[in-house]
Amino acid sequence: MKTLKVLYFAVLREQRGLAEEILTTTAPTAAELYAELRARHRFTLPAECLRAALNAQFAPWTAELRDGDELAFIPPVAGG
Amino acid sequence: MFRMFDSPLDPAKLRLAMRDDGAGACVAFEGTVRDQSGGREVLALDYEAYAPLAESEGARIISEARAKFQVAGAAVAHRTGRLAPGDLAVWVGVVSEHRGPAFEACRYIIDQLKARVPIWKREHYADGMSSWINSVTGLSR
Q: Is B29 exposed, middle or buried, given 0-12, 13-18 or 19+ CB atoms closer than 10 A?
């Protein structure tokens, strides 16, 4: 088990009802954790539409999660 | 420098901070909130960002622009929070010795910003509805 801080933005923040949470998980990668959270919270966006960020840097979905990481799921962006 | 601001942007001040007397050109892009979108009247936009990643990814885009084009300096300021039609949402400024690279670099920076930087906006319409731009269908544009 590891403990992570997970950040949610925009449509994910609204669907989760939270901007961030601390959670413990056995998911080895960002992809697996998103799949779990998507099923639990009924997120509408598939992972293919998102990017993952680990410790405030974009990261591949296959990146290994470590205890204490800050993980963010990045919905399609709309700056400008 | 790529910075997020939660208060109104001041283009004159942003421009002054880029002063470079060796540069003969400055190109600035101002992105403002439109009062309509897809045929619907827009009353307000809410912008939010993952600020640390927005600023680091934005700095990376500026570095890329400086490597690709002969520019002397580049800076971006982007708003978060609630904006009304006409409000300035983003300012991109580039200075260079001659105008060509400044135009090209400015275009590159705003295009990459819109594609990559973790900033989101929710449009609020006159009919009481609102929606996240790009996130409803999951399509980017």
A: middle
Total domains in the fold of chain B:
1
For B105, the domain range is 2-132
Which CATH number fits the domain that encloses residue B47? 3.90.1170.40
Minimal CA separation from A80 to chain B, in Å: 6
State what percent of residues in chain A have pLDDT above 90.
100
Q: What are the average pLDDT values for consecutive 10-residue runs of chain B, which has 141 residues? A: 97 96 97 95 98 98 97 98 98 98 98 97 96 68 37
The domains of chain A are located at 26-66
Exposed/middle/buried for residue A66 (C-beta within 10 Å: 0-12, 13-18, 19+): exposed
| Contact call for A75 and B134, based on CB within 8 A | yes
Residue B111's DSSP bridge partners are none
- Structural contact between residues B92 and B104, judged by C-beta atoms closer than 8 angstroms: no
Contacts of A13 in chain B (CB under 8 A): 48
CB–CB contact B135 A78 (8 Å) = yes
State the pLDDT at residue B140.
40
Using the beta-carbon criterion (under 8 Å), do B140 and A10 form an inter-chain contact? no
- As a whole number of angstroms, the distance between CA B64 and CA A53 comes to 20
